[in-house]
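From the shared-data thread, chain only:
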Amino acid sequence: MSSAMTYYKQAIKTDLPSMGQPGINAFLGDVAVSDDAEKTIVAGFYRMEKSDEPLVYEYTYHEMKIIVEGEMIIKDQTGNEVHATVGDVFYFPKGSVITFQSPTYGVGFFCGQRKEGEA
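Structure, as tokens:
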């Protein structure tokens, strides 16, 4: 038995809710969620706009991210820092602490091994 695919037309235009941290212009929205209860994966978009403060985020799950618009400065807890632009791909392992900033704005598409709304 096969399952049908799911199509999300123009998903990049999804209105992203604020991550709710004062002084940090970060927005995240889950768009697609698998129906595998044991190994749920979630995909969506993350937007970072120029802010007074960076977003520091500790991953409690594994995530992959590709930059699809703009640019971000992404740094990990070991001091590795990348000026990320369109097409750059990242893997953030569970337990990593990542700092996100943008000199202008950036949009990333993510796929994470977590439940919907757990970011």
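The chain has a mean pLDDT of 95.
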